Request: fold
Amino acid sequence: MRFDRSRPLSWYPIPSASWILLLVAGCVSGIGLLSGCDLVGQSDLVTLEVRTAPGNAGITSPPSRTFNSGESVTLRAIPGPDTEYLFHRWSGDLESGENPIHFTIEENMTLVAHFTPRPRTLTITIQGEGTVEHRQAHTDHDFSSNLVGSYANGQQIELLATPDPGWEFVQWRGENFTFNRPANPEIMNIFKDQQVTAIFREAGS
Reply:
């Protein structure tokens, strides 16, 4: 049974036939037929349910639990130490990109901590004389000539090799994956930190 916590509760104990009232115990105690129990300031219990997505990407602190209604809550999303994820956002009864998140809980709530795969690093090395540029594939983004780039997990990357005068491009060679290809430009997928080598040789050699 739920009560209005802003108002005192009055109740009247009535003994059954052949019984007499001796003692009332609880919020107040005494002997008599009228007693009052003041609920002002007392709290109802509410439940905070917390989930993570993906389920194995991390944990939350605290996990799902009950609180007193009106209690202040600080909730933190923690990526797993052996995962490749970063915190992204909260969804559910609150939407936020902050971590930790601070709020007052007054009713049952459900929150989901979303994690996203951390960006992948592309490292380019050059054998011979030439330059390499890269960008997200199938876009009109500008090429970057930096030899280290950062891309979202699973993204396709376009590689473009330009030989210096008197040199010619031979092939791409990849580290930790099968990637020995002569196409130029070349499209590759990145699912982990990867190193790619552009191989040039002197023309006519």
In short: The chain has no helices and 17 strands. The first strand starts at residue 9 and ends at 11.
